[in-house]
Amino acid sequence: MMTALLLPVLLGAGGISIDLTKMMMTKNRLQDASDSAALAAASALANDGMSIDDAKKLALEFLRTQMQNGGASSDEDPESPSQDGKKDEASGYTASQVNIDETSTVGTGKSWVINVSASYEMPLNPLTRLLVKDKTTINASTTAESATESKSALSMFLVLDRSGSMSFKTDEIASRTVACKNWTESNWGQDIKATKPCYVRKIAALKSAVANLTTQLNTADPENELVRTAAVSYNDQMQTETQLAWGTTGASTYVDALPTEPTGGTDSHAAFAKALDKLVPADSSKETEIPAHKDKNGQVPTKYIVFMTDGANTAYNGKSSDANGNRSDTETKASCDKARAAKVEVYTVAFMAPDRGQALLKYCATTEANYFEADDMTQLVAAFKAIGEKATAVVARLTH
Length: 400
What we know:
Elements: H1 2-47, H2 52-70, E1 94-104, E2 110-123, E3 135-150, E4 154-161, E5 169-175, E6 198-201, H3 202-220, E7 227-234, E8 245-246, H4 249-256, H5 269-279, H6 289-296, E9 302-309, E10 315-316, E11 319-320, H7 322-341, E12 345-351, H8 355-364, E13 371-374, H9 377-391, E14 392-398
Parallel strand pairs: 4-7, 4-9, 9-12, 12-13
Antiparallel strand pairs: 1-2, 2-3, 3-14, 5-6, 10-11
Helix pairs in contact: 1-2, 3-9, 5-7
């Protein structure tokens, strides 16, 4: 009699122990599926420009697919409902809801909070059913965030080398059919003939790299509400700079107009100092950037200098000598110290530059991560792209 009374309890207890293990596995699978669905929606909103309704559909479909692949199918529970309360023969789970809250951020930027909750009605084995109900409901929820935004309003000054060595060829072929003068350090200044193939000159590579940077800035700020840019170039003397202006048109036009066959030595001190003075004037009453951004977008801008050279300083105010080159280095470094103190973020790019030129740019970079070495055109374009990516960031993360 005792055996008859206890047997259902013992069998039920055995069934419960089996189902507890299964419940834990199903809970983990459902949580993983919810996390993946939320992140998929977050990424689609930020990176693909997907609408909120489409992102919700994506999350629900992602959840169904993940659960189906994980083994939770209608074969286990043909009666389980779907997100609208009806039978879901594909997945055997209930997606309670996907909620997405959208908030406007800086300029045209937006941020989203994605909440996904899901449940799965797991059928219990016959032994467990001796003591309890036929099914148990397992729940999971997760939250993800994503955003599209400029890091901040920004003012950026390009300080670019246009000395004679920028006429030298790179290893990139421009044309195999059209001949050109392929200048190198060994034949510079000689009366050489045009030859084939025609190689891309350093100055042309620089123009392509700057175009890549400005394209990213324009994409992040299509209404010209957040970004102000300007440019200045130098050989053994500083050329006239552009004025800081909204968008990138002025700076782009300036760079495109740089000579296709630059000449002259190298002296960076005046150009860097000019860029710094335009961003952070010694006379605070002449400050332009903070008031301009305050009026336009209500922010205090992040200020950047992008400093590029392919050589080492050889002159000072048009006069070439080793001593003058060293003097230019010293004064350029002094301006870099001032930029660091003024919280101006400096990126530096050494394009096929000698050791002394690299040393100067390493000194001037705000951090080690702000310094780039480029040995060819591809690396130069990549360096300017990386700078653009740091100024225009997209974030998607799981928060809970």
